[in-house]
């Protein structure tokens, strides 16, 4: 679980280097905007995910309110705060993420809008 929280902190601070330290070289990142952007794959995809966030948002922060350990998956339920770059408009959304860990590295990070869908994706 500590590995997942380190990854989450790197996303919150925009520290791609810290994320790459905990990410498998073939990591898959499926954000809620995946229907538009697709899934980001590998370390290059992770760099692109961070760059896309930085390009459009001054702030991108997930605040955990509940953390569920599901073996090789960790579900983080909370809120997502974003502030648009240029517009300065802040919005807060409910969010739930499922992070899969294998061999001491994060191999998949997926974001959901609904808590129940995240829990189901984690097999709970």
Name some characteristics of this structure.
single chain; 124 residues; alpha+beta; Nuclear Transport Factor 2, Chain: A; 36% helix; 46% strand; globular
Please explain how this structure is put together.
It is a single chain. The protein has 124 residues and is of the alpha+beta class. The chain has one domain: Nuclear Transport Factor 2, Chain: A (Roll), CATH 3.10.450. The protein is 36% helix and 46% strand. It has five helices and six strands; from the N terminus they run ααβαβαββββα. The protein has helices spanning 2-13, 16-22, 34-37, 42-56, 115-121; strands at 23-30, 40-41, 57-70, 73-84, 90-102, 105-112. Strands 2-1-6-5-4-3 form a six-stranded mixed sheet, sandwiched between helices. A hairpin with a 2-residue loop joins strand 3 (57-70) and strand 4 (73-84). Helix 1 (2-13) packs antiparallel against helix 2 (16-22). The chain starts with a helix and ends with a helix. The model has no long low-confidence stretch (mean pLDDT 93).
Please sum up the structure shown.
It is built from five helices and six strands. The protein has 124 residues and is of the alpha+beta class.
Topology diagram in text:
Elements: H1 2-13, H2 16-22, E1 23-30, H3 34-37, E2 40-41, H4 42-56, E3 57-70, E4 73-84, E5 90-102, E6 105-112, H5 115-121
Parallel strand pairs: 1-6
Antiparallel strand pairs: 1-2, 3-4, 4-5, 5-6
Helix pairs in contact: 1-2
Query: What is the strand arrangement across the widest sheet?
Result: 2-1-6-5-4-3
Could you name the ranges where pLDDT drops below 50 across 5 or more consecutive residues? none
Strand content: over 45%
Q: Calculate Rg over CA atoms.
A: 13 Å
Order of helices and strands: HHEHEHEEEEH
Q: Based on helices, strands and strand pairing, what is the structural class?
A: alpha+beta
**Number of DSSP strand runs:** 6
